[in-house]
Amino acid sequence: MTAVERIEELRAEVLSAVALAGSTSDLESVRVKYLGRSAELTEIKKSIRDLSPEDRKSVGGASNKATKEIEAALQERLESIAATEREERLRVEAVDVTLPGTPYPKGSLHPSLRVIDEVVDFFVGLGYRVAEGPEVETDYYNFTALNIPPGHPARGMQDTFFLDEGLVLRTHTSPVQIRTMLSQEPPVYVVCPGRTYRRDSDPTHTPMFNQIEGLAVDKGLTLGHLKGTLAAMARHVFGEDVKVRLRPSYFQFVEPGVELDVSCFVCGGSDPNCKVCRGAGWIEMLGAGMVDPAVLTEVGYDPEEYTGFAFGMGPDRMAMVKYGIPDLRLFFEGDLRFLRQF
Ligand code: FA5
Fold it and tell me: How far is the CA of 98 from the centre of ligand 1 (A)?
């Protein structure tokens, strides 16, 4: 077989290989095999210089022609395959913008935090300032300054966690009252949310729980102001129709002391089997009273000039009632199934 015949054979072989190539990478293999550095056609071209002048002309002409044709065929096929591949890629990668998005798991507020936010927002709306204090408190702020001196039986009413050297885990947020009054002159209007601790554990008591303290000290404040303020707060949290009533009670640092009940916002007192008020028609909500003059004197305020009211509520208990949750301990177990319901 002459070189020219072999070139012709190779040309036909390449053209059919080009036609069979199904992808750009197939095509690249064909190009390397037939036009690459060690391809047969390349070898033939290299050997041209050793041929006789006539053969040089015919073999040279044939190989150049074949190379051009092969290159043209490769290029043409490449363009058509690339177009097909692009179309395929567009089809596979197509995004249907009308499909619903991937759902994103959303967090939610803990029921206690919802109540805390509602109460604090309400008081901030009235012009109260938010104040905070430490959870590890001194015996002085937690008890003594609140008119509960060492050895007083009222200390035993709060199951205290005692720490070293006169420190306790605060049993209520009332020490923030003292800290606030010692740090500023009256008038005082503060609301103080925070964690508190007692050695308690049953369906309505947990060892750690939240309280929100409120304190107002100004000229001419009366029990009427206290009642009006708390009634408005109860309507804000539990609904416009709720009523409040005060019952006498006792806290060492207020005089008189009261407890505030809210009318049952579920049955309004009409259902003897109501799960929320158990037929009583009223729900106990918080402790409050007029700041005892002894406490005002302790912080250097003149009780002849100023009077004040204070209240302390348990937002966890309020959330229990508001959302119908039977056991307070569920609040702090961190079970996501519980939390996801809110
Ligand atoms: C007090 O702690 C007073 N410092 C409240 C106060 C403030 C009275 C200012 C007067 C003036 P008491 O011990 O009743 O009061 O607690 C207040 C609220 O905290 C209760 O009504 C209850 O909702 C909540 N609470 C008390 N102990 C627990 C507990 N172990 N778990 C959950 N909530 C509790």
Answer: 54
What's the gap in Å between 269 CA and the centre of ligand 1?
24
Best probe residue, ligand 1, of 251, 290, 320, 330 (max atoms within 8 Å of C-beta) = 251
134 prior amide bond cis, ω within 30: no
Q: Find tokens 């609301």 and name the residue.
A: 191
Q: Report yes or no: 200 and 173 within 8 Å, Cβ to Cβ.
A: no
DSSP state letters, 38-102: T-HHHHHHHHGGGS-HHHHHHHHHHHHHHHHHHHHHHHHHHHHHHHHHHHHHHHHH---TTSPPP
* Alpha carbons 63 and 40: distance in angstroms, whole number: 11
Q: Exposure of 2 by Cβ count < 10 A (0-12 exposed, 13-18 middle, 19+ buried)? A: exposed
Query: How far, in whole angstroms, is CA 10 from its chain's centroid?
Result: 70
Compute the Cα dihedral for 80, 86, 92, 94 and give only its sign.
negative
What's the gap in Å between 312 CA and the centre of ligand 1? Answer: 6
pTM value?
0.72
Name which of 156, 165, 167 is nearest 134 in CA terms.
Answer: 167
Q: Which residues line ligand 1 (CB under 6 A)?
A: 172, 174, 198, 200, 205-206, 209, 211, 213, 251, 254, 286-289, 310-314, 316-317, 328
pLDDT averaged per 10 residues, the chain (length 342): 88 89 89 89 88 88 90 91 91 90 86 96 98 97 94 83 92 97 97 96 90 98 96 91 92 96 83 83 92 97 98 94 86 89 84
